[in-house]
Design brief:
The protein has 284 residues and is of the alpha/beta class. The chain has ten helices and nine strands. Residues 271-284 have a biased composition (Low complexity).
Length: 284
């Protein structure tokens, strides 16, 4: 037992994490840069006086992720999944508790913006450089990135500005750029919900490759089938609290019972309706 435990290398540790949003109300001076700075500095009673409302998005969440794991984050809308992912990436501060990471987390979300006025080709280089790849590495992987995304299947879209892309095309290109590099911790927010089944299959295979290269993958998705096909462990958040943490099958079973969602189960085929019979010929 001890031998197996020693092989588990922690990559992300969340220890009693609280994340609180402060939403400005109708206090005086709203819209002024100076007033905004003052609101940031005020806390407690001063916040109440300024009409600042506290929204507790994540409450006392603790977990340990290990190298080689693919972990799904599930929960109903507003449960805190994306908020927690942003905190792990270092994009949001925590109110209480701590988040420790081994290596650099990389967040990939469907809303992660590249440069809409630049071509897809230029954005491949921009995204690659932002992830720490050299120009030579990007050149070596460029064709693979474009082919993986599939955006050139119906034309030379890679040479067009990204503002001309559909949301699905842009999301597929973002995932393809991120997937071109091996990550210590890759955080994916709904990227697998875009594209056809063929692209989703390629994405799932790539996630398995990332795990084999000792990475850790977090996947936020409302598609239970993507979670089931990709992840071996699931964290279920509900109203900001960690409701369950365990093997994918066990957690999804409880979650589906909670939500009544069976959308990824095979549906019964509709019964064939017999064609109406031709009316009998009238007798003479």
């Amino acid at each position: 037992m001890a031998e197996n435990t020693s092989e588990l290398v922690p990559t992300v540790v969340a220890d009693g994490v609280d994340i609180v949003y402060r939403v400005n109300g109708t206090g005086a001076g709203r819209g002024s840069a100076t007033a905004a700075l003052n609101r940031i500095l005020r806390r407690g009673k001063a916040e109440k006086a300024a009409g600042v409302r506290r929204v507790h998005a994540v409450r006392n969440v603790s977990f340990v992720a290990h190298r080689g794991e693919a972990i799904g984050l599930i929960g109903t809308n507003g449960s805190g999944k994306s908020t927690l992912l942003k905190a792990v990436a270092g994009l949001l501060p925590v109110e209480n508790g701590r988040i420790y990471t081994d290596g650099q987390p990389s967040l990939l979300g469907v809303n992660a913006a590249l440069m809409s006025d630049l071509t897809g080709e230029r954005n491949v280089y921009l995204g690659g450089l932002a992830m720490g790849m050299s120009r030579e590495q990007i050149r070596e992987r460029y064709d693979g990135i474009v082919d993986f995304s599939g955006i050139n299947e119906k034309g030379d879209f890679i040479t067009l500005p990204m503002r001309t892309y559909s949301s699905g095309m842009a999301a597929r290109l973002r995932f393809s750029i991120a997937a071109a590099k091996d990550h210590d911790v890759l955080l994916i927010d709904e990227a697998l919900a875009t594209g056809d089944r063929s692209f989703q299959k390629r994405s799932e295979d790539r996630i398995r490759e990332l795990r084999r290269h000792a990475g850790t993958v977090f996947l936020v998705s409302h598609n239970n089938k993507s979670i089931r096909d990709t992840c071996d462990r699931v964290l279920w958040l509900e109203r900001g609290e960690l409701r369950m943490d365990g093997p994918t099958g066990e957690v999804l079973k409880e979650y589906e019972a909670f939500t009544g969602d069976k959308s990824d189960k095979p549906k019964a085929k509709p019964k064939a309706v017999p064609a109406p019979k031709a009316p009998a010929a009238a007798s003479a």
